[in-house]
Amino acid sequence: MIRVVLPYHLRTLAQVDAEVNLDLKGPVTQRSILDALEAAYPVLRGTIREHISQKRRAFVRFFACEQDVSFDEPDAPLPDAIASGVEPFWIIGAVAGG
Amino acid sequence: MSGVRVLVGTRKGAFVLNADGKRDKWEINGPFFGGWEMYHVKGSPADPNRLYASQSNSWFGQLIQRSDDGGKTWLPVDNKFVYDGTPGTHQWYDGTPHPWEFKRVWHLEPSLTDPDTVYAGVEDAGLFRTTDGGQTWHELPGLRQHGSGPRWQPGAGGLCLHTILLDPTDANRIYIAISSAGAFRSDDGAKTWKAINQGLRSQHIPDPTAEVGHCVHRIAMHRARPGVLFMQKHWDVMRSNNSGDHWEEVSGNLPTDFGFVIDVHAHEPETIYVVPIKSDSEHYPPDGKLRVYRSRSGGNEWEPLTKGLPQSDCYVNVLRDAMAVDSLDSCGVYFGTTGGQVYASADAGESWKPIVRDLPAVLSVEVQSLA
To answer: Residue B61: its chain A contacts at CB < 8 A?
Structure first.
C-alpha cells in the first residue's frame, strides 16, 4: 500500500480528507505513483503533471523520506519506506502569499 | 421574469447571487472553489441551469467546472486544452519569437442554442470548443493559424483571448478579441478569420494603424442588431456599423477613454455603458470617483451615472469581463470591482447599490434573467 499526501487544493478537488492509499504493482516510482493516483482520481490529471509533456508543474514538488525528489528521474525507484507504506509520498505546492 | 442570477468570478472563488425581479434583496452563495482564480462563470442561454466555470491557479493549472442545477452543485469536466498540431510561435514582450503555451481559460461562451456546446478563449490566444458538455475540448485552429499569428504580442495580462461574441442571426459568424492582437471575425463557423481592426489607432505600437497589434479590451453587441459593435480599447471607445469592417471613435466627452468594460442596454441598442479608468498606468477611476458613463446615442455624448456609487477616495478597477446587463423590463446593469464590490442598478444605471461589498477582487460578472 502506497500512501500519498496531497496539498489542500488537490485534496478538495479529489474529495479526500487525508492521505490517499494506492495499490501499486511493479516498481514504485514517481511515475507509477502519479499514474495510479490519476487513474484513481481522474480530476487530478493535469494538476500535478502537464497533460502532454507529463512534466511536473513548476510550483509542485515531491518529497520522499524528507528528501526533495522533485528533480529525480520519474522512473527512478523511490525509497523502500515509500514502497512499503512506512512513509508517505508527499506532493507539495510552493508556499506563497496572496 | 421571476428573477436574476448573477455569476461572479473572483481571484479567490466563485459566487452565485440570486434575487427576485425587484433586485433589492440578494442571497449570496459561495465561495465555490475557494482559493482558486475564477476567471469566468457563465450560463447557457439554451438552458439556464447549465453553468460553466473556468477555475485555475498557478500551482495546479486549469480546471473546468460544470453545473446542471444553476450553481448548487458542480462537476469537474475535461481540462485538457491542447493546441492543434505544432503551435509555433508568437512574439514575446521583447519582440522575440516565443512558443505558444497554454496558460488558462479566460472566457467561456456557451452556444446560444445548445447547452453542450461552449467556446473557450484561452491564453496563449486560441479558441477551443466542446460539443459534449465539456467532456472534451478541441481547438478551432483557424484563428491561431491566421497569417498574422506570429506577430501577435501579449499585453500586460498575457496573450489572452478574452471576448467571444456569437451572432444570434448567423450561426457561422463569430467575433473574438485578443490582447493585444486585436479583433477578428469568422463568417464560416471559425474555420477562417479576418482581422477587423481598420479604423483603430494605437499610439503605443510602431505602426498605429497596423492590421494587428491593437490592445482591444472588450467588444459588445446588442442581440437585435449584431452588425453594430462597440469596443473599449486600451485607449479609445470605438463603434462599428458594419460588423467590424471599419471602426470609428466615439469617446466624445468621456473624462478618459481608457477602460476595460463596455456593454449595451438590453432593450435600447444605442444605449451603452463604460467605466472610465484614469490611464494605462493608473488603473483606477479619475479623481477617486467611481462613475459609470452612459451614452444613449451610441457614443460620443456621455453622461456620468453616480447615484449610489462612491464619489471620493475610490481607487478600484473594473476588469474587462466584469460588467453585464439583465433583460428584465427595466434593464439591470451590474459590475464588479477589484475591491470586491458588485454593484447593481435595477433602473438602467440611474441609481446603484452594492449587492455585496467585500468579495475578493472581481474578475468577471455575468447575469442570467430567469423565467
So the answer is: 46-47, 50, 57
